[in-house]
Design a protein that fits this description.
By secondary structure, the protein is of the alpha/beta class. The chain folds into two domains: about 300 residues, no CATH class; about 290 residues, 3-Layer(aba) Sandwich (Rossmann fold), CATH 3.40.50.150. About 50% of the residues lie in helices and about 10% in strands. It has an eight-stranded mixed sheet with strand order 7-6-5-8-9-11-10-12, with helices on both faces.
């Protein structure tokens, strides 16, 4: 309150509020762009927007250092003309960047084979950097030319930015991404209007009104920024089938959820080749263009347990868990993490599960299945005995005072995405030592944990699952942890069973019978011999059995470190401190991989290649737009002898601030349930309290 009174007294109230709205628009635009990149590219690349934004800010500082004449022109009321001008340029630049992103056919994965992609990349970077460049100029001028008011300006700058973060969470849940992207230019326009109040110049008012009309007109032209579909995601594949279409779309701050009608939707991962029935009609359910799941049509069907229609759900490897708890008369409660369109729920219903709980990350999935598509799906999300909760699996589970006989982590996504390694640098807190310990503590005395993953060759993910399991059981003080594991594989998937009790002869018999009937292969169970593996889907050698058997033997001999060191991929147990389950690359093996095979990209994995390329691009563009102009102009060392250590001090301060912020964002994904919440709330907290400290 005192700040506002003081501001009014010195007639700078429009300036402070203008800075507030302008900074809010910049952060709102930045977070909205992150959502765009999650859809256009992949979630982990969305963080590239943060680095590009700072590149724009850094370039603006370099620009003012190289052209100090601009600072001299911004004396008195001229300052507000430049603030008005640059805030308007931010509005236009943000719209321009959206237009470029939607029209330029940039494909990061073809950059080594298509010479034009490098040009497109440069255009992409410049387009996204441009609005942040003008934003940096606007804030830098306000701070440098009004040193006596710097504390208030800095407070309004960081305070507005923090509110922009929270605004994203609120707005993204109520309006579409296309409309959300227009809000930041409008906020920036409002800031321009407030700056103009200091000028009392009618011509500037007319100019602002003209820009405002342009923005409104542009916001109605959705075709200008209708973003292309990523050709490497499931949605692109589904829409290539004749007469395919998107029939529903729900958006929130978590993700864009789309329902797709397509002949290509036949979702039953690793379906047994022995299955002779038909898969019912299905609708595809994709998240940010990928993460394929499916809604199975069971319209008008009531007695689902007796239906032959859902028999297919029992012919996939993930159904093994239901058989193990069903046949030992111990089946009470089942928990499914990530039920999606309900495939694993159907498996539970078919196998007579009495009570099924589900934890779904995206609340819109629950809304669709309980409302819009309840009849179509046979009302499975509304059935008696089925309870669906929303949130991150582990976070919600910790709040449940329940014990489950089966905890099943569903397989979501496409095999192409998994085999391409697009998730290799995505964090996942389900597949960590601490995650498994949480699951273990919520199992009943005879309970089972079942995890299904896409089958990758050479063996990586399934071996790492076993490593995590052995580490967890060892920490829990379990004797003979190897006797609590079982692994099977289909032609496309692998399923790990982690049992609270040792797996006995009866359960081994169930596992063998399950695999024999479905033409699956056993990979590991207590006492397995090599002749028990690699029987149906025959490989040149029993690779999966051999690697897991070697892992178990190394564990029993206390030689795990030697095994991990000698294994070609990194398959050691991952923890919450480094939750990168899908990252299995050893950097020292890259030259060998490239020399040994022409198809080396799938072994190095695209996610790793992209992040390396992005890091390199960031360095190159930083050198070109920040450091090179300073070097050519001469380092900013004034007559007052501002030394390089002084500059390094502030550079180190900024670096430490960002490293801490990014670490908090990653860590709090576990507690705040998803990256969108974590990013917005952590950035809000850092900025708000930094601004409070400055005041």
């Amino acid at each position: 309150m005192d700040t506002m009174v003081a501001a009014k007294k010195d007639n700078d109230f429009p300036l402070y509020i203008g800075i507030f709205f302008f900074s809010g628009s910049v952060l709102l635009f930045e977070l909205s762009l992150m959502r765009v990149f999650s859809i256009l590219q992949w979630n982990y690349l969305a963080f590239m927007i943060i680095s590009i934004a700072f590149l724009g800010y850094g370039a603006s500082g370099t620009f003012l250092s190289v052209f100090p004449g601009i600072l001299k022109k911004t004396e008195g009321k001229n300052l507000y003309k430049y603030l008005l001008l640059f805030s308007l340029f931010f509005s236009l630049g943000s719209l321009f960047s959206l237009f470029i992103i939607s029209k330029i056919p940039f494909d990061l994965y073809r950059i080594t084979t298509d010479r034009y992609q490098l040009l497109y990349l440069i255009i992409y970077y410049l387009a996204i950097t441009t609005p942040f460049f003008f934003a940096g100029l606007c804030i830098s001028l306000a701070i440098s030319k009004l040193p006596k008011k710097i504390n208030k300006i800095y407070f309004c700058d960081l305070g507005g930015a923090s509110i922009g973060c929270i605004s994203f969470l609120v707005l993204a849940n109520y309006i579409s991404l296309s409309h959300l992207l227009i809000i930041p230019p409008l906020f920036s326009f409002l800031a321009s209007f407030l700056f103009s109040l200091k000028l009392k110049d009618k011509s500037s008012m007319i100019y602002i009104v003209g820009i405002f009309v342009f923005i409104i007109l542009f916001s109605g032209a959705g075709s200008f920024y209708s973003f292309p579909i990523n050709p490497y995601k499931s949605l692109f594949t589904l829409l290539r089938y004749p007469n395919s279409r998107i029939i529903d779309r729900q958006e929130n701050s978590v993700a864009r959820l789309e329902v797709v009608e397509s002949e290509g939707v036949k979702y039953a991962p690793g379906l047994s080749l022995n299955f002779s029935g038909e898969i019912p009609e299905q609708l595809g359910l994709v998240t940010d263009g990928d993460g394929l799941s499916a809604i199975t049509r069971l319209e008008g069907e009531e007695d689902l347990e007796a239906l032959k229609k859902i028999e297919f759900s029992d012919y996939i490897s993930s159904a093994l868990g239901f058989h193990l708890v069903r046949d030992i008369d111990n089946q009470g409660k089942t928990l499914i993490i990530g039920p999606g369109g309900g495939l694993d729920i159907l498996g539970g219903i078919y196998n007579g599960a009495e009570e099924i709980w589900g934890i779904e990350m995206n609340p819109n999935v629950k809304i669709l299945l309980q409302n819009n598509y309840s009849d179509y799906s046979g009302n499975i999300y509304n059935r008696e005995g089925i309870n669906i909760l929303t949130g991150e699996g582990r976070s919600v589970l910790k709040g449940l005072d329940q014990k489950f006989d089966l905890i099943q982590i569903s397989l979501i996504g496409s095999s192409n995405t998994a085999s391409g390694g697009f998730y290799s640098i995505s964090e996942n807190y389900l597949y960590t030592v601490e995650g498994f310990m949480d699951f273990w503590q919520h199992l009943s005395d005879g309970g089972k944990l079942s995890i299904t993953r896409w089958l990758k060759f050479p063996p990586r993910e399934v071996v790492r699952l076993c490593s995590i399991s052995l580490e967890v059981l060892s920490r829990m003080g379990i004797e003979k942890p190897e006797n609590h594991l079982a692994v099977i594989r289909s032609w496309a998937t692998s399923t790990l069973i982690l049992s609270k009790k040792e797996i006995g002869e009866k359960e081994i018999r169930i596992i063998k019978d399950f695999c024999d009937k479905r033409n699956f292969d056993t990979v590991y169970f207590p006492g397995i011999k090599e002749e028990d593996a690699n029987i149906n889907h025959i490989l040149e050698q029993s690779y999966y059995y051999q690697e897991i058997d070697q892992l178990v033997n190394s564990f029993k001999k206390d030689e795990l470190k030697d095994f991990y060191d000698s294994y070609f991929f990194n398959v050691s147990a991952v923890t919450d401190n480094q939750p990168y389950f899908f990252y299995t690359l050893k950097l020292q093996n890259i030259p060998m991989i490239i020399k040994s095979t022409a198809n080396w990209q799938s072994l190095i994995e695209w996610g790793n290649l992209i992040i390396f390329a992005t890091f390199l691009q960031g360095i190159i563009f930083s050198i070109i737009f920040i450091f090179l102009p300073l070097i050519l102009k001469g380092l900013p060392v004034s007559k007052r002898k501002v030394k390089i250590p002084f500059l390094l001090y502030f550079a180190s301060l900024g670096l430490g601030y960002m490293l801490l912020e990014i670490s908090f964002i990653q860590k709090f994904i576990l507690y705040l349930t998803n990256p969108a919440y974590s990013t917005s709330i952590i950035i809000f907290s850092f900025l708000f309290f930094s601004g409070l400290g400055s005041f």
